[in-house]
Write a structure and sequence with these properties.
Strands 17-14-16-15-19-20-18-21 form an 8-stranded antiparallel sheet, sandwiched between helices. The chain has a 5-stranded antiparallel sheet with strand order 7-8-12-10-11. The chain has a 4-stranded mixed sheet with strand order 1-4-6-5, covered by helices on one side. Helix 7 packs antiparallel against helix 8, helix 10 packs antiparallel against helix 11 and helix 12 packs across helix 14. It is of the alpha+beta class. It has 14 helices and 21 strands.
């Protein structure tokens, strides 16, 4: 790809930008790779002078067109690294283009850790927070909820520092800003001394998980499970703090579980299922029983995250936690009664309520249901039927995953939606940071 290279360089783009899943493409007029906040501000001002819209892009892990633009695409490769660690305050400030995996490794070297994180760490920190990336937790919330301050370049090139005390109305919204309020240049996260988590993974039936869900949720700091469609089988994972010492999975166990069953072999069985859909229910029964129980202990990012190399399409909705079991049972009934053939497990996680304006957990305890289809397999019928169930329970779609909702829906789903759009009108009245996706979900 002919990305502009060099410090603060920019140039015309000759090939289309494509996201990780391959379902979104864009052809910007030019790409810019700023190496400092000053260069980023200058790039924003120049784009405005040229009448071009601006979008920053991370690693393209969103399934929506949130980062697509026909104007100026801002690449973050040179805006990376830790600016500073404040051990007394318990914070770390990082440049916006820093990949989560690099941040996690750097924090571990300093004896520090984020409190919670999602299950992949390929994204940039700014991309992850802008779409509301989350893990699972009883008390600990999304990555965005762990932000203490952020630096935002607005439409006129001004650099705003935002926190609970400084520009608090911007801070309330920009922690999950969808790229609509400006370009994030730095983020300050809360961190804590590194700790151990003991992970306990074991099979459990769908009926047992759903009937005991409230207890499993209450008894574990981090609980999640995967249901295998066409079966009554689930795999559960409980992560709880431990005094240690580290006892990671053995090399053979890790290879079998993470590489063969979750990536290599999984790729093969999905390819077979795509070619011959009738084989999927049988494969699902085998796959759902292939993952055995195991317990291991390690530092947080090595427990929370895992490699994901099998490419897929994904929809995820947050429903009120109290509605989780009923929603999931309806989803299972729909699948069982349909002609759908689904080779990917359904992932279920939780989050406490938070105070971020457009967080999927804003103001309510939430449970997440994520559905997937192998890339290249028709997904629309499954996603449409599932979305009908999710929205009937007041669901809020993940901002970076496939959905069909629009601004009218979100105005009802989010009590503070008008607060966000009013702030956008103030910070970006000319929609310098707009695109078709934002027009649909926020209005114009």
């Amino acid at each position: 790809m002919s990305t502009a290279t060099g410090t603060g360089s920019s140039g015309k783009n000759t090939t289309a930008w494509r996201n990780w899943a391959g379902n979104v493409t864009a052809r910007p007029v030019r790409e810019v790779t700023p190496a400092s906040v000053d260069e980023l501000s200058a790039a924003v001002r120049r784009a405005k002078d040229d009448g071009l819209r601006v979008k920053p892009v991370g690693t393209g892990h969103s399934f929506t067109a949130a980062a697509a633009t026909d104007g100026v695409l801002i690449r973050p490769e040179l805006l990376t690294g830790i600016r500073g660690i404040d051990r007394e305050a318990g914070t770390v400030t990082v440049d916006a283009g820093t990949p989560l995996k690099r941040l996690n490794a750097a924090l571990a070297r300093e004896g520090l850790s984020l409190t919670n994180m999602g299950d992949i760490m390929e994204q940039t920190v700014s991309g992850a927070i802008s779409t509301g990336t989350h893990g699972t937790g009883r008390e600990s919330a999304s990555i965005s909820a762990q932000i203490k301050a952020l630096e935002l370049v607005t439409a006129d090139g001004t650099v705003l520092t935002c926190s609970a005390k400084e520009n608090p109305e911007v801070f309330a919204a920009a922690r999950i800003g969808l790229g609509a309020l400006g370009v994030i240049s730095a983020i300050t996260f809360a961190v804590e001394p590194v700790f151990f988590l003991t992970a306990r993974e074991e099979p459990m039936t769908f009926d047992k998980v759903t009937s005991e869900f409230d207890a499993l949720y209450a008894e574990n700091e981090h609980f999640e499970f995967y249901w295998f469609p066409h079966t009554g089988n689930c795999t559960t994972k409980r992560n709880n703090r431990s005094s240690g010492p580290a006892a990671p999975p053995g090399k053979v166990s890790a290879f079998v579980e993470d590489e063969i069953l979750s990536n290599g072999l999984f790729q093969v069985v999905n390819s077979v299922g795509r070619a011959v859909p009738a084989t999927i229910p049988g494969i699902a029964k085998i796959s759902s029983k292939a993952l055995s129980a195991r317990t291991y202990t390690d530092i947080p990012y090595k427990v929370f995250t895992s490699p994901r190399r099998v490419r897929f399409m994904e929809m995820e909705y947050a429903v009120p936690r109290a509605a989780l079991v009923e929603t999931l049972r309806e989803l299972k009934t729909m699948v069982d009664r349909s002609n759908l053939r689904i080779s990917f497990p359904v992932e279920v996680r939780t989050a406490p309520a938070d105070d971020i304006t457009l967080s999927t957990a804003s103001g309510r305890e939430s449970a997440y249901i994520a559905i997937h289809m192998y890339r290249g397999t028709p997904y629309q019928a499954y996603f449409t039927a599932a979305e009908r169930i999710f929205t009937a329970h007041g669901g809020r779609p993940h901002w970076g995953k496939i959905h069909t909702r629009d601004a009218d829906y979100f105005a009802q789903a989010y009590p503070r939606f008008a607060e966000f759009t009013a702030l956008r009108d103030r910070l970006d009245p000319d929609r310098l940071f707009g695109n078709d996706y934002l027009r649909r979900v926020l209005g114009d």
